[in-house]
Amino acid sequence: MLFAAHLRTRHIARCSALVAIGALLCVITGFASAAPKSPHSDDIAERAWQKGAIGHAQKMRSFRDFDHGVQPTPPVIPQFSADFDSAGMIATAQPNGATKTATNAFFQDLGTNERTCLTCHQPQNGWGVSASSVQARFYSSFGTDPIFRLVDGATCPTDDVSTIADKLQAYQLLLSKGLIRIALPMPEGAEFEITSVNDPYNCNTNAETGLTSPTSGIVSVYRRPLPSTNLSYLTAVMWDGREPTLLSQATDATLGHAQANAAPTDAQLQQIVQFETGLFTAQIFDNKAKDLDKKGAEGGPTELSEQLSSFYVGINDPFGQNPKGTGFDSNIFEIFAAWGDQRGKSEASADRESIARGEAIFNTTRINITGVAGINDALQQPSVSGFCGTCHDTPNVGNHSMKAPLDIGVGDAETQAPPALDIVDLPVFTLQCISGPLSGQTFTVTDPGRALITGNCADIGKMKGPILRGLAGRAPYFHNGSAATLLDVVDFYDQRFSIGFSEQEKRDLVAFLKSL
């Protein structure tokens, strides 16, 4: 077995990791005692969306696709496991030890449509999903796998799924881009109206499933499921940060995506969250560079788990919010620094050097940041000199170490369509700001982003950045699946910020990103 030696010789530093996991559970899930927070605080966020979103999901039970299949589930998730992906192999480590799926609520059917958490969070996809894996599941199950449910797997619950051809049409966004429909109510008292929607699926324009006026009803957007691993490094839950904790996320996902009759019990919620926060996932093997944790490299999930003991929220924040007051260091990743000079050392030398060069490019390339809501407007600076790490600052993780919803232009549409990205299959919303500081401005976007939670025009298009580990297993990329490959991601940034990467630099950067 390719990883037999690895399994025999690698040692997971359980004590420090487990202590850190326990501490992070208190922070992330709210288990720790703390002074009450204002219901309007940023940590709690606005929760008005919850009632409308859950109510909508429950109402959509009236649209049923009756030929249901069950969720294939392995009996055990080992302490260390590896799966093939497009670039090589992705691996998951559990410092707590193996998990028996029969006794953990993450793997149990708690709803009414045969779904479990595993439905949208699979280990071979970095505990998310990929478009290619969704396609394989469709053809192997004839479209009955639990991920194919009208409530949110289809472009709209009203879609016809009576034949295989109909299912291919109904689940086209899930199959092509791995997108799930997210249905959110228009925020009460929002600073904006949705004055028009170009919706090829008629879900937003149908009063039964969508908007009932420019200021009321349900807005359907289409987003990628985020990974349920490496969550001990998480600082914002969901793309739009709408969930205050992982506990609330598990509750709402069960009531919404699984259309459950009742919320999970406290014991079930703790099982789900403890499992999620005990997972560490990263690429472990590259088809060209071979083992990513050999010859001085520190790839793979074991090393990732061992650095948790030194992590804290705000650890490397570039905007001065580091609670320990230390300065920002743009050298975010130091995983492959030892591969900087591999000439003649092995047949994989050239590929290892490419990965090391890509890491250096990520760390040191200067980026002139302009037009980014959440940075330029917040700092009142039309131009900010930054790096990749300005938005991906957590060391060797790539997440932002503080909550930082940003609009980098991925959700732009029509005349300002984002470069190098494919948004042609997505609805387009026109938002007119009618109050607040941006009153009179108009936005045309494929997703209003965090504005659907806060109601603020300043939040239109804002999303958080995802954790950058395990990228190779979960294509396509960005919240709307608009980047089919990591090269598309690099091309977007290169054009969006006029960076000027050479073709070699692009190849090196892609080699690095797919090794994370």
Give structural notes.
The protein is an alpha+beta fold. The chain has a domain at 313-513: Cytochrome c-like domain (Cytochrome Bc1 Complex, Chain D, domain 2, Orthogonal Bundle), CATH 1.10.760.10. Helices cover 26% and strands 13% of the residues. Helix 10 (349-364) packs across helix 14 (503-513) and helix 13 packs across helix 14.
Number of strands: 14
As a whole number of angstroms, the C-alpha radius of gyration is 22 Å
Helical percentage: 25-40%
How far from one another are the termini? 22 Å
- CATH topology of one domain, which one? Cytochrome Bc1 Complex, Chain D, domain 2
Characterize the main sheet: 4 strands, antiparallel
- Total helical elements: 14
List keywords for this structure.
three-stranded antiparallel beta sheet; alpha+beta; four-stranded antiparallel beta sheet; Cytochrome Bc1 Complex, Chain D, domain 2; disordered N terminus; 14 helices; 516 residues
Characterize this entry briefly.
By secondary structure, this protein is an alpha+beta fold. It contains 14 helices and 14 strands.
Q: How is this fold's topology laid out?
A:
Elements: H1 4-9, H2 14-29, H3 48-59, E1 76-77, E2 80-85, E3 88-93, E4 99-100, H4 131-141, H5 164-170, H6 172-177, E5 180-185, E6 192-198, E7 211-213, E8 216-223, H7 246-256, H8 266-277, E9 280-286, E10 290-291, H9 301-306, H10 349-364, E11 367-369, H11 376-379, E12 384-386, E13 428-433, E14 442-445, H12 451-454, H13 486-496, H14 503-513
Antiparallel strand pairs: 1-4, 2-3, 3-9, 5-8, 6-13, 7-8, 9-10, 11-12, 13-14
